[in-house]
Design goal:
The chain is mainly alpha-helical. The protein has a two-stranded antiparallel ribbon with strand order 1-2. Helix 1 runs parallel beside helix 4 and helix 21 packs across helix 22. The chain is globular and about 65 Å long. Belongs to the TrkH potassium transport family.
């Protein structure tokens, strides 16, 4: 039975803590004298207060704090949906966005670290609104619920099933016996990397405001930027290299960093997913650089490698930054970028997409099936790195891949009702589902989602949520079995 009162109580507490994080852009609004933005933040505080007060009043006599698996799925999905609903209020009240549909899309894109935008022009918006937009990237990068599980002693509930419902990837690393400690470790690593990138970007000539907002989106593998031309605005090889390195850091499994800190460097390097992740990015970046250099797109191989390495890192990690309009690149580098859309980051990373571990496993499953056909009596195992993959995980990965592709295709069909061309529809659907943010045609590096009607933005918001929570957490809510007592 679903514990409605406890789920609602936790949700109210999370909204209050989110409102506290909104204090930073509120102070910025005061500092820059942005009265309309300040008004938007104050209205949001009032809405959160009224909602939370009503919840606490209704649930004041609740003594049952037990949560089951269904509570986990319902609570996590509700948290992302309702947190987005409240966080979008400042964008509309401040007049920065034309309607609530656009604001909801933008914040869902932020929290799910998609980075897709409806803004045709960014730099004219209040700095505090743009900061809040980027901050939602950072909060969603390691997971909203994972963040609050680290604070759960104050919330008064076990967080194991909540992390299980939100965590990405086919496997979940529990670094310590207590899930609260694991969540704290992951967020500590995340914060330290964020501080390091901010410092390095400051050395590259960025203002503190620019460095922080770029870091928010880099470490979250997101893609929002406070500049119209994204990272290309800075025209700096140093900035490109720093952001490329930290995008790749964000796209790797954060559990490996804990292992490295703990002295298990050999096991980190033996990790099959990490080696495949770096190998795919490295090989494709070099091939793209050769093509770009050969076609005269850039001056020489090294400049070509700078741009190809950045853009390939941006797509494979599902960050969505851009330093060039790759729509003008030769066909080969474009096709390689397109293939990376269906790869994604590592399990346990800030990146979205299908995930490297799933792609590698599916490829090895295909080879094993070929061997099995040739040698019917043979016994073959699917191995990734040093580990043999269990049959139940193989089934889970196969099912996920099928549902993922089906969801993307259905999304593309729905988006096609807007009248957009087929490449735009296909790209829009899968870039939202994979939480990538930029794609091809009208939603390429110089495009945006502003031209879509409101109902398409809601479709895309659903795709972003389903992709970020890896489909089944959301889809379970549509099952009759879920709601049976």
């Amino acid at each position: 039975m679903i514990n409605w009162k406890q789920d609602a109580t936790l949700l109210a507490k999370i909204l209050i803590i989110l409102a506290l994080f909104m204090g930073i852009p509120t102070c910025l609004a005061l500092y820059y004298g942005e009265t309309t933005a300040l008004h938007g933040f104050l209205v949001t505080y009032g809405a959160v207060f009224l909602f939370s007060a009503a919840i606490f009043l209704i649930t004041r006599n609740n003594t049952n704090t037990h949560l089951n698996a269904r509570d986990g799925y319902l609570f996590v999905s509700s948290t992302w949906i309702i947190a987005t609903a409240f966080s979008a209020i400042p964008l509309v009240v401040s007049g920065s966005y034309v309607d609530y549909s656009s604001a909801y899309f933008e914040i869902m894109s932020g929290f799910t670290t998609t980075g897709a935008t409806v803004l045709p022009e960014i730099e004219s918006l209040p700095k505090s609104i743009l900061f809040w937009r980027s901050e939602t990237n950072w909060l969603g990068g390691m997971g909203i619920v994972v963040l609050f599980v680290a604070l759960l002693p104050a919330l008064g509930v076990s967080g194991t099933m909540l992390v299980g419902a939100e965590s990405v990837g086919p496997t979940k690393d529990k670094l310590t016996p207590k899930i609260k400690t694991t969540a704290s470790i992951l967020w500590t690593i995340y914060v330290l990397f964020s501080l390091l990138e901010t410092i390095l970007l400051k050395f590259g000539g960025l203002s503190l405001y620019e460095a922080v907002t770029v870091t928010f989106s880099t470490m979250a593998a997101a893609g929002f930027c406070v500049k119209n031309a994204s990272i290309g605005t800075f025209q700096s090889a140093y900035v490109d290299i720093v952001v490329t390195v930290f995008m790749m850091i964000a796209g790797a499994n954060f559990a490996l960093y804990y292992k490295a800190i703990s002295g298990h460097l050999r096991s980190v390097w033996k990790d099959g997913e990490l080696r495949a992740y770096l190998g795919i990015w490295g090989i494709i970046s070099i091939i793209s650089a050769i093509s770009l250099s050969y076609n005269g797109t850039y001056d020489g191989f090294w400049q070509s490698l700078r741009f190809s390495a950045f853009q390939n890192a941006s797509i494979i990690t599902t960050t969505g930054f851009a330093t060039a309009n790759y729509i003008n690149w030769p066909s080969l580098p474009q096709m390689l970028l397109f293939l990376l859309v269906f790869v994604g980051g590592c399990a346990g990373s800030a990146g979205g997409g299908i995930k490297v571990i799933r792609v590698v496993t599916l490829m090895k499953m295909a080879f094993v099936n070929i061997k099995q056909r040739i040698h019917p009596n043979g016994i073959f195992h699917v191995r990734v790195g040093q580990n043999s993959v269990k049959n139940e995980i193989l089934l889970s990965i196969s099912t996920f891949f099928g549902v993922y592709i089906a969801t993307g295709l259905i999304g593309a069909v729905l988006i096609s009702f807007s009248g957009a061309d087929i490449l735009t529809c296909f790209s829009s659907s899968f870039l939202c589902l994979g939480n990538i943010g930029i794609g091809f045609s009208e939603v390429g590096p110089t495009g945006n989602f502003a031209f879509y009607p409101s109902w398409i933005k809601w479709v895309c918001s659903f795709l972003m949520l389903a992709g970020r929570l890896e489909l089944f957490t959301v889809y379970s809510l549509f099952s009759k079995v879920f709601w049976k007592r």
